[in-house]
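Take a record:
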Amino acid sequence: MKDLNYQLIQNKGLLILLSLAVGALSACGPNSQNENQPKDSRESITQGKTVKSNSDLGKSVVAVVSDLSTGQALCTGSILSHNLILTAAHCVDQNPIKVHIVFANNVKQAHEEHIRTVTGIYQNPYWKRPNTVKQGDLAILQFEGELPAGFTPVQLVNKDYKVEEGDSVLFMGYGVTNGTSHAGAGLLRMTKTTVLGMQSPTEVITNGRETSVCFGDSGGPAFVYVKNNFIQWGVASSVLNQTCNEASIHTAVMEYDSWIRTAIQKYSKTPSYPKKKTEVPRPPSGSNEGHHKR
């Protein structure tokens, strides 16, 4: 695949990472290289680290690449079932010609058998609806074919789960490593930070001063650690400044529990949504491209 030259496009506060020099996804192969990729794994997501290829949690996270009339846009998503992906609604707002799901830690070195074509896009009905409390920055993507070997759905928190100030959370995404230079997109990375509070009844704001999600991490999962498992509670939605070093906002999936479950039952060929639990204990308190800025 050709090296990608990225720029940001802003529209009513939304920022999406767009590639101007684009090669077809089918041109990606094991010998593809990107000389601009960061050599220091500490420079990531920002100030996170590269996810190893044998990471179990990483096998539930995917890249979402949209073909636009002007190039390609990059976002992140998580696996809901054998043919459904959860991402941010604003990731598919640009009237994409085609959308691909890439099941690989490195988008630019993905084998063709690890790429799927999206056949259905379902944005949350609250997205862009005026005068509503819910922001609804969620979308479910249906793709043709099955999951590649080794990939599995995430587990989502139940509808009663609450994220609280000081909670330690983990992010994963394919976004840039630097909000100023916009370099390093296309590698799956992760980082940890803490919850600052609620931005709205359906949105959680997290600390981004030391490490954060950034452009291209939109739609990526936010996890909490519960009973020796990472469980997804959020979807990356936005950052508060273009340098990605202040705070980030995530959509709380538990506030859309009914919509997600209904979509899985309707569109999944083999539903694999985790069973509801009667109680989820609080995690310990403690210590991120298509992202948009408020």
Remarks:
- The helical segments are 257-267.
- Residues 257-267 form the longest helix (11 residues).
- Confidence is low (pLDDT under 50) at residues 1-16, 19-44, 270-289.
